[in-house]
User: What shape does this take?
Amino acid sequence: MARATLDGNWEHDHTVPSRTLYPHQWSWDSAFIAIGWAHARPERVWSELTSLFDAQWRDGRVPHIVFNPAVSDAAYFPGPGFWATGSVDAAPPTATSGLVQPPVHALAAWHAYRRAPSDQARAALARLYPRLVAQQHYLASHRDVGGAGLVSIVHPWESGLDNSPAWDDPMAAVPAEAAVLRAYRRRDIVHAAAAHRPTDLDYARYVAIVTAYRAAGYRDGDLAHRHPFLVECPLFNAALGAAEHALAGIAGEIGADPGPHRERAARITAAVVDRLYDPTTGTFHPRDLRTGRLTAARTVLGLTPLILPDLPARQVEAVLVEARSARFGLATAMPRPLPSHDRTAVDFEPQRYWRGPSWMNINWLVRQGLLGHGHAALAAGLGASMVQLAAVAGCHEYFHPDTGAGLGSPAFSWTAALLLDILAED
Assistant: This one.
């Protein structure tokens, strides 16, 4: 099933997330998908990642969407006409968005290489390495709005967890009117139930934030003075640190110097702990740079710093307490994977996108963190719940965290890819 899903979504040099709702190439989707190709068609690992990085901007950013020119502009909202990156000097000739997504690409490339090493793969890894370094440089040099060594995201879409309750407070300060959407037509609710998707008000604010960024030519230099949404995200910054660890491994493999990557990784981990860990709750929270405060919601974002190999033992143990609590239910034998939000919270919504459902990619990341910190039994329990979920419900985009019913797009690529990775490891 997983192999057939990936083959069915292959599009000449990359894989679409799904044939229905997502007809283009998405950034962190391609990273997770590359991990699956290592087990099915290893040569496609490097085509997947190379095709994405061929659309890298001259400033180093890797756009979160690369548009397929053969697909109608009306097939997806917001499409290439909305982003209008063609007039931006730093943008590539290919139509893209102007946002980014969590930098999980170095982690994926290194993981996939170790799954399927070869001379050809090593050569492809060496060609990709400077592009991965440029991605990290862009984020560190252009997006450290808070000045503490962490990246600020400028839109909830950059977190990957679009409508997570983690963004409710900073989003509430974004001025937007539902009338904004009258000029556009949402395509997501054509393919998925509206009750499972972000609300119209969410989308109005999404559009307002992109409009502000687009009006400034997607420049980052004066974000602190003009941009309506600026947040330091635990997942994004944990991925940034994990990427430096992966780049150190890649550098050692191809004959480059791993030392600078290890030094940067240590600094990022220290900043994540200093800026985003709340000793009162024992978990990590986003920091809203507009208010200077940590957001209150306890979401699965708080567990993702486990992917940092050098996360201090105190924080590892605290996060495990949070993960094993009734809020998330991690155990050596668990009926369902982790939900995306605290299941005891009053605003927990088991069917609405990132406000409750279980997602395979976040569970895979947490599982990698568990393995990295020596918690093999918990990782096995989580992995088994993920396999069972897909075996019963199929390779859906996301899943009901209680019933296990498949939600969102069927035949979803990263679900298939990461399922292959767990099955191969088992």
User: Anything to note?
Assistant: The first helix runs from residue 2 to 9. The longest strand covers residues 10-11. The chain is about 45% helix and 5% strand.
